[in-house]
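hi! just following up on the protien thing from before. the input was this:
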Amino acid sequence: MTTRVIIVDDQAMVRAGFAALLAALLAAQSDIDVVGDAPDGVQGVALSRRAHPDVVLMDVRMPEMDGLEAARQLLDPPVGVAHRPKVLMLTTFDVDDYVYEALRAGASGFLLKDAPPADLISAVRVVAAGEALLAPSVTRRLIADFARQRPAPRTDRAALRLNGLTPRETEVLELIARGLSNQEIAEALILAEQTVKTHIGRVLAKLALRDRAQAVIFAYESGLVAPGER
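and the predicted 3d structure came back as:
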């Protein structure tokens, strides 16, 4: 099955570079198809509504409409619009606060613009498969930084939602928030990796979260994990 991708970035060289890279690296597999690109959020949303991509690579800062607002419009569409693509934010090391807000809005993660080609291809595939791109250590640091900038008090409602988890599910959620992969969680808890996947599915279902990214945000904002903890 081919994954349809669009690229939304105000730098023409970036758009062309991503498109060329994807096309060149995946010519043999033919599992990713770049179906268009746009220079700002307004045109990106319009293109997504027309092209129905599986994944949108979205720049954070753009004219007309920034990536955050564009992500919100794509992930929470108006009545009558059924298509909801996965959104992968494109950013840099000195990224601003928008990325954290994008994750809260439902984006599936973010990728550094200077990431190695293999990481770019893997990111598209991971997000298309419904997972969140939260494994790289840089991602863990950035999410912790954003959470530290916006400490959210643990609410009674969040506490009640946490109380609905079993002790093992709570452990799994905490390790997800610390940036561990399924394999690392399995090793830490001495479980089979498939068992970890089952626990993660139950955590997402019980907390009404759509993916791993929202699980991380919930863990920080509920107080289960405090910024800076290891």
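The CA atoms of residues 3 and 32 lie 5 Å apart.
The first helix runs from residue 12 to 25.
cheers
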